[in-house]
C-alpha cells in the first residue's frame, strides 16, 4: 500500500484567503475542513493561525473562533497613553488615530501593541476599546521606590506609565524607599492582580544630579554607552597633541 503523501502546511496567505471566502469567524475544525487537512496534521495549521494572531491579522473570540480583524471592526496598532489617562491608537494599516478612554485600555500600557474594537465615531473622531494585548513594550523601567504600610512599589518616572509596580520584599535588592531604581516587570496586570516586578539596580537618591541624568536617559531611551567600534577607535587615538 502506497504511503499517504503528507500535505505541506498552508501558507499564511492561503489561510487569510480561507477566512475572506468564508466571510465569518471560523472554528479550527472548520478551517481544517475548508483546507482539507486531516486532524492529525492540524499542528501545521495551528502554527499558521498563531502567527496571524501574533501579528494582529486574526483575533480569537470567546467562542474559540478565529476572525479577520479588518472584517470584525477591529484594528491593530500601537498605543500612546496620555498622562491624563486617555490614549490614542495608531493603526498599523494607516488611517486616523482611534481615541480610547481610560476604562477602555484593558490593562494595556503606553507603547503596547494591541487590537482594539471600533465602538463608534463622534464627528471625525473614532473611538474604541482594547480587546487584546499583542505585545508588551515595557519590560524594564526607572522609578522611585515607595512604601505604603508593608507594601513596596515603584512609581515610574515616565508620566505615560500610569501604574505602580509592586515589588515583593524579597526582590528589593537592598533598595530603600526614596531611592531611584531600575526595575524589571515579572508579572503583567490581570483583572485581579496588580503588576509585579523586581529591582535590578539601585541608582541612588532622587535628588542626586547623576541620578536625574540616568532618569532622562532611561525615560527617552537614550544610549548610555558608546558602541564597541567607537570605543575601539578611541583607544587607537594618541592622547598627545600633534603640533
Automatic annotation (TrEMBL):
SUPFAM superfamilies: Nucleic acid-binding proteins. Residues 76-134 form the Cold-shock domain. The keyword S-adenosyl-L-methionine does not apply. Transmembrane segments: none annotated. InterPro entries: CSD, CSD2, NA-bd_OB-fold, RNase_B_OB_dom. Coiled coil: none annotated. It comes from the Bacteria. The keyword Transit peptide does not apply. Keywords: Exonuclease, Hydrolase, Nuclease. One of its GO terms (cellular component) is cytosol. GO terms for molecular function: exonuclease activity; nucleic acid binding. This is Ribonuclease R. The lineage of its organism: Bacteria, Pseudomonadati, Thermodesulfobacteriota, Desulfobaccia, Desulfobaccales.
Amino acid at each position: 500500500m502506497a504511503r499517504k503523501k503528507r500535505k505541506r502546511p498552508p501558507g499564511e496567505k492561503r489561510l487569510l484567503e480561507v477566512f475572506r471566502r468564508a466571510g465569518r469567524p471560523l472554528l479550527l475544525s472548520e478551517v481544517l475542513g475548508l483546507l482539507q487537512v486531516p486532524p492529525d496534521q492540524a499542528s501545521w495549521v495551528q502554527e499558521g493561525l498563531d502567527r496571524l494572531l501574533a501579528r494582529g491579522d486574526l483575533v480569537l473570540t470567546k467562542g474559540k473562533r478565529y476572525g479577520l480583524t479588518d472584517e470584525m471592526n477591529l484594528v491593530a496598532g500601537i498605543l500612546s497613553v496620555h498622562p491624563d489617562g486617555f490614549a490614542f491608537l495608531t493603526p498599523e494599516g494607516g488611517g486616523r488615530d482611534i481615541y480610547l478612554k481610560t476604562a477602555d485600555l484593558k490593562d494595556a500600557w503606553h507603547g503596547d501593541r494591541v487590537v482594539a474594537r471600533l465602538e463608534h465615531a463622534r464627528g471625525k473622531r473614532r473611538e474604541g476599546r482594547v480587546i487584546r494585548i499583542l505585545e508588551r513594550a515595557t519590560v524594564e523601567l526607572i522609578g522611585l521606590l515607595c512604601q505604603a504600610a508593608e507594601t513596596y512599589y515603584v512609581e515610574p518616572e515616565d508620566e505615560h506609565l500610569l501604574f505602580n509596580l509592586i515589588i515583593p520584599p524579597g526582590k528589593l535588592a537592598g533598595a530603600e524607599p526614596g531611592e531611584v531604581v531600575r526595575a524589571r516587570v515579572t508579572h503583567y496586570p490581570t483583572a485581579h492582580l496588580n503588576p509585579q516586578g523586581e529591582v535590578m539596580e539601585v541608582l541612588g537618591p532622587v535628588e542626586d544630579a547623576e541620578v536625574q541624568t540616568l532618569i532622562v536617559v532611561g525615560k527617552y531611551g537614550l544610549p548610555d554607552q558608546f558602541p564597541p567600534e567607537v570605543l575601539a577607535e578611541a583607544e587607537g587615538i594618541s592622547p598627545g597633541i600633534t603640533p
